[in-house]
């Protein structure tokens, strides 16, 4: 018993440090929106056969008052636990649609640019979420056909009974649904068949470690599934020209990754799109 207590004493401070950090993040996150510390960056999505930018993915960033940035993988789960994901998620959606509408209006060749927004399971479970999306589209004037909502495969599987009707309501608005991190979430093929989705995103783990024959076959299998179910396919995490070439050769229609561009501030994205439009004046070169 004595030893057990001693062990507990050694272990406790480390635990409480982690808990303190967590509590601090939760506390600071509460002020992030009113203090203007959140921003949205955009990563281009490329049509691999032509190299043209067909869309962007909105990715949330938090600059916590004068400290080093915290990645979304750390603070999004805290936002989910605290319920802050709903106001923050609605804010991201509004920003993304506002920016998207601005680019449609002002950038030559960007009239059809799609904007993908990541949606947490906690947002999707809320029966008011489709109304929120409709309201944001109305406010910003952004076309539902240009909006994509990304939902991870694991979220779709976990809360299917609650979320499926909401996904259908969103698709009735004309919004497209994308299955994020596909290949990591254990969904059955029957489930996938019945799911109202438009796009699958091949998880970056298949692309980053894509050199092996096994990975090549898995990517081909996902492409076949996508083709069979009439889903568009986007490969995530393309970091090298070699990976880009390989995916293109396998017939993957779309891709995104650091090789093309990291996530950019809205201003930097505008410059990127403008340069792309000058370099590739809407001509295809298959
Ligand atoms: P995700 O939706 O799968 O986003 C892709 C992540 O991969 C992003 O990380 C992106 O910056 C990163 N990435 C892009 N290209 C490459 C590449 O070539 N190589 C590598 N290694 N990584 C690449 P990020 O921005 O840190 O976001 C991480 C995750 O946080 C996202 O994964 C998404 O699940 C979540 N997230 C980000 N923004 C939001 C948001 O607004 N709402 C919600 N609910 N989740 C978000
Ligand atoms: Mg995503
Ligand atoms: Mg992903
Ligand atoms: Mg991810």
UniProtKB/TrEMBL annotation:
Regions annotated as coiled coil: none
Boundaries of every EAL domain copy: 22-277
Annotated protein name in UniProt: EAL domain-containing protein
Lineage start: Bacteria, Bacillati, Actinomycetota, Actinomycetes, Kitasatosporales
Part of the full-length chain shown: 499 to 784 of 784
